[in-house]
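Re: [ENG-882] Designed sequences occasionally contain unexpected residues at chain ends

Forwarding the minimal case from QA. C-alpha cells:
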C-alpha cells in the first residue's frame, strides 16, 4: 500500500547532528581524580575502622582482619588525617564552583545532588533506627555541596543578567567567597566554648571547636532519636552545631565554591587547558599516561554519590564472611 504525500511544500528536515563532545580540561580532571581516590581510601578506612565495629565485635576478628581494623581506627583519629580531610573537602567545593563555569545547567546538577543527599539522610536515619546506633546524617557533605552549587548558580545567573558583565560577576564571586569563608570561621569562633590558643587553633579549620550535639538518647530503655527544633536545625545547616557522622555546615564551605567559581572565570575564560596550550600531540601523550586518573576525575559525581554504599557493603561482607560475631 502506497501513501502519497500531496503537500510538496513541506520543508526537508535533516537528522539533527550530535553536538560535538567538549574537550575536557586535563588538569581539572586530574586533580579531581586524585581527590576522589584520597576520599575513597579515607572512607574505606572509616568502614573498616569505625563503621564495622558498630555492627561486629571487631576485637574478636581473625588476627589479619583485627590488624586492619586497628590500623584503620588509628588512622581515622590521627590529627594529620583530620586536617588533610578538610583540605580535600575545601578543594572539592572549589572544583565544584569552578566546574559550574563549564556546566550547561548547574542548577539541574545542584538539584540532583541535593536530592541524593536527602535520600542518603533518609537511609541513614532508617539505618540508625534499625541498628540502634549513630548513623544519622542531617546536613552532610553531599547536601552542603548541592546547596552551595545551587546558591552559587543562582547568584551567577542573577548578577550576569542584571549587569550584563561577566567581569563584574568574576569580582563579585571573589568578594562573596572571602565574605562567606570569613563568616564561616567567625561563626565557629562565636559558637565555641573552648579557649583558642597557640596549641589548638588548627581545630578551628576542621570544625572541632563547634559544639557536637547528641543525635539520640535511650528513653526508658528505648533508642530514641532527638528531634531538634527549627532554630537548632538552622544552626546545623549554617555551621554552628555539629550533628551526626557526616556533617558540613554551609559556612565556610559555600565560600570555597564561590572561590572556585572566581578561578574558573579568571583562568579558564577560553575554556582551554592551562598546561597544554599549543601542542596537542604533547597533550595526547601525557593524557594517555594519566588516563585512569582523568577518567575517574571525569566521573566524579557518580563515584562521589555511590562509592560509600559499595565500600560499606564490602566491609560488611568481609567481616561477615570472616565469621566475626555480630553485636
Amino acid at each position: 500500500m502506497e501513501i502519497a504525500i500531496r503537500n510538496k511544500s513541506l520543508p526537508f528536515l535533516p537528522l539533527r547532528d550530535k553536538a560535538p563532545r567538549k574537550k575536557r580540561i586535563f588538569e581539572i580532571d586530574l586533580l579531581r581524580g586524585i581527590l576522589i581516590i584520597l576520599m575513597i581510601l579515607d572512607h574505606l578506612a572509616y568502614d573498616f575502622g569505625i563503621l564495622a565495629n558498630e555492627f561486629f565485635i571487631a576485637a574478636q576478628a581473625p588476627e589479619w582482619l583485627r590488624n586492619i581494623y586497628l590500623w584503620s581506627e588509628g588512622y581515622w583519629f590521627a590529627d594529620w588525617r583530620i586536617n588533610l580531610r578538610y583540605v580535600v573537602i575545601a578543594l572539592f567545593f572549589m572544583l565544584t564552583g569552578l566546574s559550574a563555569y563549564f556546566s550547561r545547567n548547574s542548577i539541574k546538577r545542584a538539584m540532583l545532588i541535593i536530592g541524593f543527599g536527602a535520600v542518603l539522610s533518609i537511609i541513614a536515619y532508617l539505618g540508625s533506627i534499625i541498628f540502634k546506633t549513630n548513623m544519622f546524617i542531617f546536613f552532610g557533605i553531599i547536601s552542603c555541596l548541592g546547596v552551595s552549587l545551587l546558591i552559587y548558580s543562582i547568584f551567577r545567573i542573577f548578577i550576569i543578567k542584571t549587569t550584563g558583565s561577566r567581569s563584574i560577576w568574576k569580582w563579585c564571586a571573589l568578594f562573596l567567597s572571602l565574605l562567606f569563608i570569613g563568616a564561616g570561621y567567625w561563626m565557629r569562633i562565636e559558637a565555641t566554648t573552648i579557649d583558642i590558643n597557640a596549641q589548638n587553633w588548627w581545630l578551628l579549620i576542621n570544625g572541632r571547636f563547634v559544639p557536637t550535639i547528641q543525635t539520640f538518647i535511650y528513653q526508658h530503655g528505648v533508642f530514641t532519636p532527638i528531634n531538634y527544633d527549627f532554630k537548632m536545625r538552622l544552626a546545623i545547616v549554617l555551621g554552628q552545631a555539629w550533628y551526626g557522622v557526616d556533617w558540613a555546615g554551609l559556612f565556610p564551605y559555600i565560600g570555597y565554591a564561590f572561590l572556585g567559581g572566581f578561578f574558573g572565570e579568571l583562568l579558564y575564560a577560553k575554556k582551554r587547558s592551562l598546561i597544554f596550550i599549543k601542542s596537542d600531540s604533547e597533550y595526547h601523550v601525557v593524557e594517555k599516561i594519566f588516563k585512569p586518573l582523568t577518567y575517574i576525575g571525569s566521573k566524579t559525581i557518580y563515584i562521589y554519590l555511590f562509592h560509600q554504599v559499595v565500600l560499606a557493603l564490602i566491609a560488611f561482607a568481609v567481616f561477615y564472611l570472616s565469621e566475626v560475631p555480630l553485636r
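QA comment: On inspection the terminal residues look reasonable. Residues 1-20 have pLDDT under 50 and may be disordered. Proposing we downgrade this to a documentation issue.
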